[in-house]
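Regression test case RT-17, inverse folding.

Input:
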């Protein structure tokens, strides 16, 4: 069985070795790059299944590199996990809006890193069963087969994770979803992993949906729920 290839873009040799060791131990094949130019060369050279991307890189930083990767058609579908020392919420939001699938802050747990990478890669696997392809709540419509979202008639581009989160909330509309349940069902991460990933993705999702984002309700201290009524966003 061919091992999945992970491209690690990291200029700190100690962190690079730590990430590479744990990913290879988990059964992945790793390629490495210390800057954008090397990353582009690796992407051109072979099929990469996922990119672990540092933000603080020499020359072109990780945000700009992520943007360039997502602009190229042959690379755009490759999932990106950002791994960085920058913990501010604005950095997490920016990374996700540029197309990153997940965002981890240094220092990190190698176990959690491996879990998140496996979860991201599982999301790209075909499912054996198919459910309702078009979901609609008021003026919010999601076409699952075409990966298309309309909010009050306006098409809304979402990252793969934002799309999966919205689909789950719509499929369970009216039912309260805890953060732990969302981590398990959307990210395939065990509930004992501490992360603000859910909150950050909901914030990005609301912003992109505009007024229709108000249909996602926060239940303080617990989680989120998508309104079950015909919400118009007016």
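Golden output:
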């Amino acid at each position: 069985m061919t091992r999945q290839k992970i491209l690690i873009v990291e200029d700190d040799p100690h962190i690079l070795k730590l990430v590479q060791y744990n990913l290879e131990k988990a059964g992945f094949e790793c390629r490495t790059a210390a800057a954008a130019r090397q990353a582009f060369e690796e992407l051109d050279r072979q099929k990469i299944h996922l990119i672990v991307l540092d933000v603080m890189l020499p020359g072109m930083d990780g945000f700009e590199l992520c943007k360039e990767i997502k602009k190229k058609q042959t690379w755009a579908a490759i999932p990106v996990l950002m791994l960085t020392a920058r913990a501010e919420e604005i950095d997490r939001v920016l990374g996700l809006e540029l197309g990153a699938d997940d965002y981890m802050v240094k220092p990190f747990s190698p176990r959690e890193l491996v879990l998140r990478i496996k979860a991201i890669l599982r999301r790209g696997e075909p499912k054996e069963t198919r459910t309702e392809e078009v979901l609609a709540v008021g003026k919010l419509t999601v076409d699952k087969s075409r990966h298309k979202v309309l909010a009050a008639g306006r098409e809304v581009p979402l990252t793969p994770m934002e799309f999966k989160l919205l689909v789950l909330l719509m499929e369970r509309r009216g039912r309260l979803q805890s953060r732990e349940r969302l981590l398990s069902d959307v990210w395939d991460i065990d509930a004992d992993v501490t992360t603000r990933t859910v909150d950050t993705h909901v914030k990005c999702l609301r912003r992109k949906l505009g007024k229709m984002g108000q249909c996602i309700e926060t239940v303080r201290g617990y989680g989120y729920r998508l309104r079950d009524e015909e919400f118009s966003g007016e």
